[in-house]
Amino acid sequence: MAPSVQFPGNVFFYLIFVSALVFFAYSAYVRIYLLLLGKPDLRLDRLWERIVSFVPLVLVIWRVIRPRYWYSGVLHLAIFWGFMTFQLNTINFFLEGFSDDLSFMSWASAPWLAYFPVMQAFEILTLIGVVMALARREIYKPPRLSLNWDARIILGFIGILMITDLFAVAFQIAIEPFSHSERAFFSNAMAETFKGTDVDVLKAWHTTFWYAHLLDFLLFLNFLPYSKHLHIFTAAPNVFFRRLQPTGVLQPIPNLEEQEVFGVGRIQDYTWKQLLDGYTCTECGRCQEACPAYNTGKELSPKEISHQLRQQLLVNASDLLPVPVLNINVTGERGVPLTEAMGFNPIWDCVTCGACQYECPVFIEHIQAIMDVRRYLVMDEARMPETAQATLMQLEQRGHPWRGTPLGRTSWIEEMGDVPMFDGSQEYLFWVGCTGALSERNVLTTKAIVRLLNQAGVSYGVLGAEEGCCGDPARRLGNEYLFMLQAQQNIELFNTKGVKKIIASCPHGFNTFKNEYPQFDGHFEVIHHADLFAQLVKQGTLKPQEALAQKITYHDSCYLGRHNNLYDSPRRIVAGLPGAEAVEMPRTGAQSFCCGAGGGHMWVEENPGKRINQERTEEATATGAQIVATACPFCLQMFEDGIGAVPEAAEREIKVYDVAELLDMSVAPASAVPEAAKADPPQGQSEEPVQQ
């Protein structure tokens, strides 16, 4: 039993407690009702995988404690586990308010004797976390954070909650010490300072802190739904219901031909899970800090997109709900179209690189939310940048996005000669792609791939003039209907030809065939050429021999790396080149910085600001590398353009090659290797690799 202190369970307690619960129930009802207005979205696939992965992601708040954000990780971990440990005490606290007999906490029992020192330790850790959070906001002030009073209020509630409990227990011990009260070590030490104080005074202070704790908890509980800290309730379900597919996958518009509205033009056109994303945004700004558009002066902020999603839902709630809505801490004008609230330029700034989603600690799916509005702009309002409109028209009329190219689909075949056509007897279809066939620079990569396939004795064939567009540009530019037609046409052709396995030289086509064609019942085994060649080198089928005495930095394509987790194969090719020295850029692997070509921006002009490819080229140049290696035709062209715009890169004549070209140089006779690839490193260049 607890000590015989009379708890203040009286009419005031009941009035406060019931009133607070009623108001919280109303706030919860409004938000749940709004959530259920969203369109259906099945998120119970691969249930066992969801359950198993849920534990480390939520209980260890895995993404929060990444090394780059160690400070915020530590403070969040302290606060999170402080709250988790505190909850048994909270339940007991309210039971005591009704009756001491309802208390399940026997202070002398073994479980509670073990619990109390742990709980008090975590209360102290929580207070340390609060101080760290305040210091970050008031002293360090990272630009990525929303430095508003919302967070300050929450931190105040949390701090007061811990302090009032510590003092309430301290006065309780001072009034009547109990067996092993020293286990509540912090409160017990505080109680020692109260010795000699009149018992009635101690009881008055105990009652004061008891009620302060009660009021603080209930005010905190009721403020949460009206703050960005609503994520305290929604983060766990948002993580559990996250999409388990690769992040580069866009979802189709269901029953497209029957839809009256395409994409998202109103807030209720989003799915319930996308609305849950809006509730869950912590406004930590990690997405914004990683976004290449934001980092180069564009208008897009993924954080602001998520913020607007929540604000637009709440500001228009009175039009959507059958009950009056109390809008506290809500900004935005009621009735403003969603496209205007989110902004035309921000929607078109997105390069779909996935950096925002990789960094988000609560698994918000920014890309789909942005692309759904882009679909609405294109398919319902026909509002898009002129270059996007011209590209889509080119796709519709000619089946590829390259305007003004002098090349045809078979020009490179005619130049090489003796390239096998796929007839169903070969193991692989080599999908050349629009860029690989129609861009003069990337035709060189295509030829290198074919030479390597021939040398390795791979059974393959190409489609030649029968090849069309994979559909990625149409889908990323918002024309879902055109993408669907292109995908269905290709799937029908593949099935007719007997295609089972595909070699893709473009990460965008690779992602589309592998992850998005199954949405239309197109199931094929897809491999990227870098992965295939890395395997062939490992097997000894391809043997790099000629030295490439160059310093090489490899750039991770977003659609190969972050979206499809393929990082090692291209690096193994570079590492296997005799004489080559591999160096890494600071932002590499999953944290790689986009080249700027994704999301259809290979053909769409960037909005004002620094060009993304120039930013990345400067980073590559700073490594001292003489060659930038890629495994993506878009990245290759973006770097070549970037080198021309970066004086140091142009002065040093940095070269850009696909990893297939580098491998082809090394396995080919010495006479086939360009002199630039065999030259000694320029004098004065550092030979030390740049570490991440």
Index terms:
single chain, 692 residues, mainly alpha, Fumarate Reductase Iron-sulfur Protein, Chain B, domain 2, four-stranded parallel β-sheet, 31 helices, 8 strands, 53% helix, disordered C terminus
Helices and strands in order:
Elements: H1 11-36, H2 47-59, H3 70-98, H4 110-140, H5 149-175, H6 185-192, H7 199-223, H8 231-240, H9 272-280, H10 286-290, H11 292-295, H12 302-315, H13 317-320, H14 338-342, H15 344-349, H16 355-359, H17 366-379, H18 386-398, H19 411-416, E1 428-431, H20 434-438, H21 440-456, E2 460-461, H22 472-476, H23 480-497, E3 501-504, H24 507-516, E4 525-528, H25 529-539, E5 551-554, H26 568-575, E6 581-583, H27 612-622, E7 627-630, H28 633-645, H29 647-651, E8 655-658, H30 659-667, H31 675-678
